[in-house]
Amino acid sequence: MALTPTDQLHFAWLARCFGKTDYLPLSPTDLAALSHAGSFIDKYQGTHLFREGEPAVHAYVIEKGEVELYRTINGIRRVVARAGEGNVLGDIAMFRSEPYISSARAIGPVSAFRFDRDKLMPVLIQHPVITLRWLVAGLGQLEATQRRVLRLMSRTVKEQVAELLIDEADDMGEVHLSQNTIATLLGASRQTVNEALSELRRDEAVETGYRHIRVKDATKLGMIASPQGTVRRVKAVSN
Amino acid sequence: MALTPTDQLHFAWLARCFGKTDYLPLSPTDLAALSHAGSFIDKYQGTHLFREGEPAVHAYVIEKGEVELYRTINGIRRVVARAGEGNVLGDIAMFRSEPYISSARAIGPVSAFRFDRDKLMPVLIQHPVITLRWLVAGLGQLEATQRRVLRLMSRTVKEQVAELLIDEADDMGEVHLSQNTIATLLGASRQTVNEALSELRRDEAVETGYRHIRVKDATKLGMIASPQGTVRRVKAVSN
DNA sequence: CCCATATAGTCGGGGAACCGACAGTTCTGA
DNA sequence: TCAGAACTGTCGGTTCCCCGACTATATGGG
Predict the structure, then answer these.
(1) Distance (Å) from the C-alpha of residue A125 to the closest C-alpha of chain B?
(2) Which of A107, A131, B5, B191 is most open to solvent, judged by the fewest CB atoms within 10 Å of its CB?
(3) Cβ atoms of residues A134 and A14 within 8 Å
(4) How far is the CA of B185 from the C1' of C21 (A)?
(5) Does the reported pTM lie above 0.85?
(6) CB-based burial of residue A2 (10 Å sphere; 0-12 exposed, 13-18 middle, 19+ buried)?
(7) By the 8 A CB rule, do B95 and A135 touch?
(8) Which run of H or of E encompasses A92?
(9) B87 within 8 A of B134, measured Cβ to Cβ
(10) Separation CA A169–CA A163 (nearest Å)
(11) Nucleotide showing the shortest C1' distance to residue A209 CA
(12) Which 147-206 residues of chain B touch chain A by CB within 8 A?
């Protein structure tokens, strides 16, 4: 199979994504094999990569752009996570042959590599190194989710906002999220997030604007995010 | 390598654990390969399988008994999860070559199969089917964790307690956990859990005793756990 | 350029849950 | 058997946060 120069670039990028843990490098053979397992696609802003409940025949690796993962429970739409460059989506449902557990919507223009389930499985059987890498990547995501659970527990909204700002800030210390979006990401109300931001502004840690927050003092923000003085009593737990 | 009758039983059990998704059955060759990747061990009550921060050279599959996973943050000991028969522990850290992110303590007598990192990796490269199965198992855990995050958000302690009781109840509808343990599992205070249990008792859904709760009406409990009338307004989220 | 829409900012009421404290009960080991 | 430890049950004060309501400002399409 002949690869166009554009495809070469694509696969080089794909190797970077899976190579983040620099554990077992992907060989050129592996990359060529993956080209048979799916194809590159583009999505316009607002369109869905997949929807909750659909049979999961595809998994995606985001190449460019951001995707919003959300679930609808009792008519309540809840943003579960945001996925950016290098994130893998839908692999859980695809591997488990279950319906997608969440919907994925493109926040802006998105380029992605779409794996085809029926084509991918044989490739993975033939290329255990790729499978192992995928395993490591999936477990990394699991760890991140567990960390998120712990972050959510026993922390005020102000602390959570501070931490989220640190995570989402770009090189310039700028965050381009509406307060409403932040609130949904944290599972808090817009008003409380607004109040938290007001305090952070009073603390001279950030500046706020229309759909725009600038981190003035990342160190101070870090102090607020994980307060050290909050050492509560430890209750021993037996069964 | 000669397998003792006991080992045969062990491996049959191990196959069941990995085979829960009945996707790609493990072959006898696979089982034999796994026997080289580690060994069966027994742990007494209260002893640790591993501790937070230690280099992760082992992963465990629980064969019998229950294990408590906890982390210590700012001197606060937090139970992250409980693992029972068939659960895989420590694989995240082991595969990612990072220190264990939590401690694992045997709640009672525990039997487990302990994988040895250096022995396991070559086996996985040679047996992609096992790797794929492990991948599926890991992703299943990821899904469960994500579900847990969603369960935690926007639910009262009473609802959470009801759901936990359904999950943890045995065949007889009995739960053998102290209120303190339940509180820690849910990230709530003991008093609030006690209050929730009092209400559940008033609702005639459960009976309570010393380290002992009996589910009287599982249906009613389910209704309380996931209330249908709680349809709140949906705010659209754009970025 | 104007207006519908989206976002930001603020206030007050009310509810859920945390926390400390304390009394009563059950268990456990010496 | 007996004392200390662990567990349950309850109360009141306090904090945090959700929610509704309202105003002001920014954006973007026609």
Answers:
(1) 5
(2) B5
(3) no
(4) 24
(5) no
(6) exposed
(7) yes
(8) helix A91-96
(9) no
(10) 10
(11) C8
(12) 148-150, 152-154, 177-178, 180-181, 184, 187, 190
Q: Which residues on B lie below 8 Å from A108 (Cβ)?
A: 239
Q: What is the pLDDT along chain A (239 residues), one digit of tens a residue?
A: 554 556 665 665 655 555 444 344 566 777 778 888 898 998 887 788 998 899 999 998 888 888 888 777 655 666 777 777 777 888 888 888 889 888 888 877 888 889 999 999 888 888 888 888 888 877 877 777 777 776 777 789 999 999 999 988 888 899 988 998 888 888 889 999 999 999 999 999 999 999 999 999 999 999 998 876 443 333 333 32
Q: Does B84 touch chain A (CB under 8 A)?
A: no
Show residues of chain A in contact with B68, CB under 8 Å: 237, 239
Interchain CB distance below 8 Å, B68 and A237:
yes
Q: Which domains does chain B have, with CATH numbers?
A: 8-151 (2.60.120.10), 155-225 (1.10.10.10)
In whole angstroms, give the CA distance from residue B156 to residue A128: 45
Asked if B145's CB is within 8 angstroms of A146's CB, the reply is yes
Residue from B54, B110, B55, B56 nearest B82 by CA: B110
